[in-house]
Amino acid sequence: QVQLVESGGGSVQPGGSLRLSCAASGSIVSFNAMGWYRQAPGKQRELVANMFRGGSTNYADSVKGRFTISRDNAKNAVYLQMNSLKSEDTAVYYCKAEPTWVNYYWGQGTQVTVSS
After folding, report:
1. Please, what is the Cα angle at 60 between 105 and 101, to 5 degrees?
2. Cβ–Cβ < 8 Å for 93, 48
3. How many C-beta neighbours within 10 Å does residue 107 have?
4. 10-residue mean pLDDT series, the chain (116 residues)
5. Distance between CA 71 and CA 31 in Å, rounded?
6. β-sheet bridge partners, residue 91
7. In principle, which of 25, 67, 94, 113 could form an S-S bond with 63, CB 3.0–4.6 Å?
8. DSSP secondary structure of 40-73
């Protein structure tokens, strides 16, 4: 069982920045992937960004050039730096851990609100 705790959400004006953190209960060094997803009201949960064990990354088109995912295996943590935030980035952001390709774990989510 892997427990994930997200933090760093909040309210920010358009154009602002936030950094989300996800702390895992144990080592993530062997995990196939770690990622961030988001779910806006009335919409399905969608991939924002993920990072694979080898270090390669994948981003949703809507966040490319604005968001950066990073991973610190020594701290069992993954981060999402979000810059140039837009109102459409408003959502609950979830951390996902994929130790293998057949099992995965979710965090409880953290709210991000972008509004003037």
Report:
1. 35
2. yes
3. 22
4. 95 98 94 96 97 95 98 95 98 96 95 97
5. 11
6. 112
7. 67
8. -TTS--EEEEEEETTS-EEE-GGGTTTEEEEEEG
